[in-house]
Write a structure and sequence with these properties.
With about 220 residues, the protein is of the alpha+beta class. The protein is built from 5 helices and 7 strands; from the N terminus they run αβββαααββββα.
């Protein structure tokens, strides 16, 4: 009778294989974490847009009810900033509820998340007053008064009394504490093909490692 004895497994080879497996697992975790950040994001992590002097001129990725918006703050009066400010098509939103919703999101995700711009209103474009800054999202107008309908953030320097409300504004007056918000839906950034290929390769390596372990 022939007796076959398997050769003892090399200890060095075993540890080498283990190190490869650990390295692959770490790469997979890093890849999955990147995917989660890319798709999920943080609802309170809108990014600030600053000019060369670190003045706040807008924000990207403001989450409004699950839709991401980019917003730009404009200096001037409504007529010069919003294409005449005399037609509904000049505005980004058309009702009180939505104007207040985007204002709430802007207050929570931009101003309440940064002490510098929350406590120093004059660092926001369009606001010269040092005690307050109102970010106005115009949604309609009254031709008889004339007056604008707008949802606004009122950002005070003490960072304690900030709130959102509706406010009537003159379309031609240039307030020293008002900045006009221009909104647009943020473009979806496609994931490069190389990222998918990398992920597919990692998944393939997982399967290969599991088959070897079973064998």
């Amino acid at each position: 009778m022939n007796i076959f004895v398997s050769a003892p497994r090399s200890l060095a080879g075993y540890f080498f294989a283990q190190s490869i497996r650990i390295s692959i697992n770490r790469s997979i975790r890093a890849f999955l974490a990147a995917m989660i950040l890319m798709f999920a994001g943080n609802a309170n992590a809108a990014s600030y847009v600053l000019d060369a002097g670190n003045q706040l001129i807008g924000a990207n990725g403001v989450d409004v009810g699950g839709t991401l918006y980019n917003v730009v703050f404009e200096d001037g009066n409504c007529v010069t900033v919003l294409n005449g400010c005399d037609e509904l098509t000049d505005f980004d939103f058309f009702d009180t509820s939505t104007a207040l919703q985007v204002s709430d999101a802007l207050l929570t995700q931009v101003f309440s998340n940064n002490d510098l711009y929350d406590e120093m209103p004059e660092l926001t474009r369009g606001c010269v007053a040092t005690d307050r800054c109102a970010i106005a999202t115009v949604y309609g107008f009254d031709t008889i008064l004339p007056s604008l309908f707008s949802g606004v953030i009122v950002n005070f320097e003490d960072a304690l009394g900030d709130f959102t409300t509706t406010l009537g504004l003159s379309p031609t007056f240039d307030y020293n504490y008002v900045s006009y918000a221009r909104w647009e839906v943020a473009a979806v950034v496609p994931i490069p093909a190389a990222v998918w290929l990398f992920g597919t390769a990692l998944i393939g390596l997982i399967g290969f490692g599991k088959r070897r372990k079973i064998a």
